[in-house]
Design a protein that fits this description.
287 residues, alpha/beta, six-stranded mixed sheet, 23% helix
Length: 287
């Protein structure tokens, strides 16, 4: 897709499988369904977690997960990332020793689908955090929604998957998908860390609901704006207000709701020229 650095590759083998079933009338139907497989993440010699994932970009997923868990703090420089496709194992190696035994003992299962997991104190690192005061134009929001929702993707092909897109102004840049929205965010985070991407002028768009986990990950990535087609949780809103994040939800057609950070918004779009989304639109809000 023009303008994307990374876009979904629906032709990539191993991401979906064709199954045969019947519909409500008993007629035979065929359907592409998303594959999921375990990926075990190591930090140096320590096993950290096994995540269920679609299997693309395992290096970005591992790097982003460790970054968003705060496990790379004090670890020095990432020297290598080794992925063994046969064993479904990825090892992130750093030039400083790490030991997260105590942190691993404190585990929270989050509301993320495919069993999201956060280790240690979920709020660690957020105290005193203040996100950049970047502007957000409503014309960018509408342009992003239109481009992202019509981009060929695994969601449109098979469903049952989440998407997260790193954007700059009205241009989507990196579009990641996975069975868990937390995985899709971690892939974006891993790409940003690997590419030393600036976060201060970015927007993160996700198809999933805006929970505390999603807001915390976005805050740790230093991204000031988080937007979604779906809704919010109360704690997600509270954390966004605490860190100064602009939180946009229920972004469909010409409608959206901003529950935090409205001071960033520049209302430059002419709503009379924005098409409302029909109820029959193909992409739905995913929970």
């Amino acid at each position: 897709m023009t303008g994307y650095i990374i876009a979904p590759d629906i032709s990539r083998t191993g991401l979906t499988r064709r199954v045969v079933g019947v519909d409500q009338t008993g007629a035979e139907v065929t359907q592409d369904v998303v594959e999921e497989r375990p990926l075990t993440i190591y930090l140096n010699a320590q096993e950290i977690v096994t995540a269920m994932t679609i299997g693309d970009y395992p290096e970005y997923l591992a790097l982003g997960f460790l970054r968003n868990q705060g496990m790379l703090e004090g670890a020095g420089r990432v020297t290598r990332i080794d992925y063994d496709e046969e064993l479904d194992v990825v090892v992130v190696r750093t030039d400083q020793p790490t030991n997260h035994e105590e942190k691993l003992k404190k585990k929270t299962r989050t509301s993320g689908c495919a069993v999201g997991t956060v280790f240690g104190d979920m709020m660690e690192g957020l105290e005193g955090l203040s996100l950049p005061q970047a502007e957000l134009r409503t014309s960018w929001l509408y342009a992003l929604a239109a481009k992202i929702n019509t981009t060929p993707s695994l969601y449109l092909n098979a469903g049952a998957i989440h998407g997260t897109v790193l954007c700059q102004k009205d241009q989507p840049l990196v579009y990641m998908e996975d069975v868990g929205r937390h995985n899709a965010v971690d892939k974006v985070s891993g790409w940003m860390l690997q590419e030393h991407a600036n976060s201060s002028d970015k927007i993160l768009y996700t198809t999933g609901r805006l929970t505390s986990e999603m807001v915390i990950k976005c805050a740790h990535m230093g991204i000031p704006v988080l937007a979604s087609r779906s809704g919010f949780t109360a704690w997600g809103v509270e954390i966004a207000q605490q860190v100064g994040m602009t939180l946009i939800g229920r972004l469909r057609g010409k409608r959206f709701q901003c529950v935090a950070g409205k001071e960033r918004i520049i209302w430059d779009a002419d709503l009379a020229k924005i098409k409302d989304e029909p109820k029959s639109a193909g992409r739905k809000g995913v929970t």
